[in-house]
Amino acid sequence: MSTMATLVLIQQMITRYALPIILTLGNIGNLFTIAIYSQKKQRGHSCAIYLIAISCFSLIGSNWAIVPTVYALDHFDLVSNSLVLCRIRGYMIHTCSMSFRYTLILFCADRYAFCSRRVFIRALSRPQIARRSVGILILVWCILSIHLLIFESIENRRCGVYGIYGQIFGYYVAICTGLIPIMSMTCFGLLLRRNLNQLHLQIQPLSGLNRLNRRDISFVQLALTEIIVYMICTVMYPAVTIYSQATSSMNSSKSAEQKQIESFINFLAMSLLLYLNYNTTFYVHLIISKAFRRRFRDFIMTLIRKVTNQTEVYQQNSVVITSNVRQQQKKSS
Questions:
Q1: What digits encode the pLDDT tens for the residues 248-302?
Q2: pTM, two decimal places
Q3: Which carries the bigger pLDDT value, residue 239 or residue 136?
Q4: Can you list the positions of beta strands (E) in 29-172?
Q5: How far is Cα 195 from Cα 185, in angstroms, rounded to an integer?
Q6: What region holds the G-protein coupled receptors family 1 profile domain (predicted)?
Q7: What value does the mean pLDDT take over residues 21-40?
């Protein structure tokens, strides 16, 4: 089997089997995150607000991105044959993905502020600030993403960005997706570690040595880990985007094998790794945080008890109704 055929087969296998698994597990994880942090005793924390927002953006963006891609394998490709759907899908994915990235930056900034020794900086780590920040962020990216509703197009039965707009878009994505988020997260990560060192803290909770409880420690762990995960999953994306747009005018001189290799690399960098990034927050938190595992276990047990109680109530009502019906039948007879 040739290199081209192998790469095509691998990409199809990933799209057919890996992406649905990523989407399913991601949806489950994001829904659990939303449910856990929407509880009354959890949603008053600023980090809970950021994590709920991150999960919502992941949920919406991932489904808009993956479902049409997988569906097009064996069915009519709606996105590549409808300019309206093409632009709406591009707008939704871009808005959600950018909101996801910059909410993650806000989450890291919140942890830096909370661990600061300066009172006026710590005051920024509040639920009110978190709600306003997320609201403003959504509004900003809903406006800044409007250009996709106007300029995204379909060429050679493929929905995408082309021409001069595509080249400009490539540099814009490299800056807004790669440069700014990575530099911001790195900066806040280093500042957070410095604050922890100044407070003589360790990432692992040590009773009596700090003013942070287990929940705060788990949020700090998650922020630092998410910075690493984001860099791993995103580091290729800006470079691949710039290269694709910069060499788009040279496609006629490229061999078929070179085009297929570039297409496969684009798929890995701009689809698979990004979708992994959007759908791993819950599982990263579950792995690194004992406190979150306990909250998740408590949530599941509470859910089971509610279902069990409702089932018992339903069975009791059924028995009462059956008994009443029999008594009425006896009286009538």
A1: 767 677 787 887 888 889 888 888 998 999 999 999 989 988 888 888 998 899 8
A2: 0.85
A3: 136
A4: 153-155, 158-160
A5: 15
A6: 29-283
A7: 93
d(C-alpha 180, C-alpha 182), whole Å: 6
Instruction: Say how far apart CA 79 and CA 152 lie, in whole Å.
Output: 12
How is residue 161 annotated by DSSP?
A: -
The answer to whether the CB of 95 falls within 8 A of the CB of 49 is no
Q: Are 238 and 179 in contact (CB under 8 A)?
A: yes
d(CA 272, CA 266): 9
Residue type, 61: G
How large is the greatest C-alpha to C-alpha distance in the chain, in angstroms? 93
List, for residues 179-222, the tens digit of each pLDDT value: 899 999 999 989 988 887 776 544 444 444 345 666 777 888 88
Alpha helix segments (H runs only) across the chain? 3-13, 19-37, 46-74, 83-114, 119-122, 127-144, 146-151, 163-173, 180-198, 214-234, 236-246, 256-267, 273-278, 281-288, 290-332
Domain boundaries, the chain: 17-239+274-288, 298-322
- Looking at residue 204, the DSSP 8-state letter turns out to be S
The CATH class of 17-239+274-288 is mainly alpha
Q: How far is CA 94 from the centre of its chain?
A: 12
